[in-house]
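TL;DR need structure tokens for one chain.
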Amino acid sequence: MNIAKNMEAIFLVALGLVSVTTLATAAAPAARIAPPFAAQSVQAAPAAGMQVVTITAKRLTAAEKMALVD
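>> reply
TL;DR here they are.
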């Protein structure tokens, strides 16, 4: 069988198979329907005491910073 004579048909069949499998295996994204803004309920955080971190330390002098670099 002379493959050169049938190359166009082979190419078209392969192209058709690739197209069909691409469309068949493509995953459609799920539709995301957001409710209207008025339907959403917004609640404030409870009035609990906020945690506060206090750091008390001396700042390094320029000489101390240079000593750390070496």
